[in-house]
Amino acid sequence: MPDYAVLAVFIPTFFFVSITPGMCMTLAMTLGMSIGVRKTLWMMLGELVGVALVAIAAVLGVASIMLNYPQIFDLLKWVGGAYLVYIGINMWRAKGKMAVIDNAQMNTRRASLISQGFITAIANPKGWAFMISLLPPFINVDSPVGPQLGVLLGIIMITESVSMLAYASGGKSLRLFLSRGDNIRWMNRIAGSLMMLVGVWLALD
After folding, report:
1. How far is 32 from 37, CA to CA, in rounded Å?
2. Where does the chain cross the membrane (predicted)?
3. Rounded to an integer, what distance in angstroms lies between the CA atom of residue 140 and that of residue 181?
4. How many whole angstroms separate alpha carbon 89 and alpha carbon 197?
5. Residues of the chain with pLDDT under 50
């Protein structure tokens, strides 16, 4: 299991990144308003499965490299840290526009909703890049990887579920809040600042 210092950094960082408006969160909000929260849960199920697969693949792939080539561990930390700083800077510079989803083209059957959430999660290159750069440095290769991955994955699943439920349940009020002034931009800046701090911490740790 990761130590408490690692969790104290990981939890708030992933929470603010997760809650920041993106394709999955906007999809959850749009579906919540158009077909209701209960039906939106099927899309969320698919999205969570997709996110879990991406996270597991990222950790196991990079962890295997670390185990077989421990001499490049420091290089990976620096590259990962630098990429997180790069993401943070881009989030600071983001204009804060919400994704546009066409309600008329949505298929509300259960299987379609599940596949829509799943495909949205696994087909997002930014999601892969984020998982590959953020998750592995929180894994201690000198300890069993499975329990550590299980804890981090549990945190990710809870955070994603809470965020999507908030967007699906918030509906029109949340959309009004996010469209008012610079609210999205400030959410991006909070998340971006945390990303930059974590990037520096990972590189220097």
Report:
1. 5
2. 6-29, 41-69, 75-92, 113-139, 145-166, 186-204
3. 42
4. 11
5. 99-100, 102-105
CA pair distance 28, 43, nearest whole angstrom: 8
Distance CA(60)–CA(97), nearest Å, equals: 34
Both structure tokens of 71: 């001499």
Q: Which has the closest alpha carbon to 129: 64, 187, 57, 184?
A: 57
Q: What are the structure tokens assigned to 138, written together?
A: 């929180």
- Asked whether the CA dihedral 164, 170, 171, 173 is positive or negative, the reply is negative
Sign of CA pseudo-dihedral 86, 98, 32, 123: negative
Instruction: For residues 126 and 105, give the distance between their C-alpha atoms in angstroms, rounded to a whole number.
Output: 24
Read off the tokens for 163: 């965020």
The pair of three-digit structure tokens given for residue 90, joined into one six-digit string: 């881009």
pTM score: 0.70
Given the structure tokens 């670390």, which residue do they identify? 66
pLDDT at 185: 73
Give me 31's structure tokens. 């579906």
Tokens 């290159």 appear where?
Answer: 125
Phi, psi angles (nearest 5°) of residue 76: -65, -40
Amino acid at 83: Y
Nearest to 32 by CA among 88, 86, 123, 108: 108
